[in-house]
Amino acid sequence: MKILFVCKSNIGRSQMAEAFFNNLSEYHEAISAGIDARDYSGRKIRELSEKVCRCMLEEGIDISDKLSKQLTKKLISQCELIVWIAPEEVPEYLNKDKLILWNIEDAGGKPYEFWRQVRDEIKKLVTDLIENIEHS
After folding, report:
1. pLDDT above 90: percentage of residues in the chain
2. Axis crossing angle, helix 50-57 with helix 112-134, rounded to the nearest 10
3. How many CB atoms neighbour CB 44 within 10 A?
4. Where are the beta strands (DSSP E) in the chain?
5. Crossing angle of helices 50-57 and 13-24, rounded to 10°
6. CATH numbers and ranges of domains, the chain
7. Which residues contact 29 (CB under 8 A, 6 or more apart)?
8. Which residues, other chains included, contact 2 with Cβ-Cβ below 8 Å and sequence gap of 6+?
9. How far apart are CA 116 and CA 122, in angstroms?
10. Predicted confidence band at 136 (pLDDT cuts at 50, 70, 90)?
11. End-to-end CA distance of the chain
């Protein structure tokens, strides 16, 4: 199964979720994208957020070379499940049958400790998601 994690800019939350998922899942794969990542698309995370990179390194995961990606219909079509982390409204063209909504606040502009809280919340949700997928 291929999972797509979506947040606003594909710099923080969805990148963290993708990294945790790919590090913890034995049988499935994740990708991520942003609904408003045009200004960042193709740029490395280390250029966009030192806090995100540092936060994930504390978990032993290096995402500094990962690239921000814009959400496209092609990415959506490649995935069996979409995890929507963005506060923005879900586009009409998304198949609601394969959609999961996570309400995780954007940490942009917040103190580093808040980034850690977001990271830990995402790790728990990803762990629960993997358990549900791999043991059902």
Report:
1. 71
2. 60
3. 14
4. 2-7, 29-34, 81-84, 99-101
5. 20
6. 2-134 (3.40.50.2300)
7. 1, 2, 3, 22
8. 28, 29, 30, 31, 78, 79, 80, 81
9. 10
10. low
11. 13
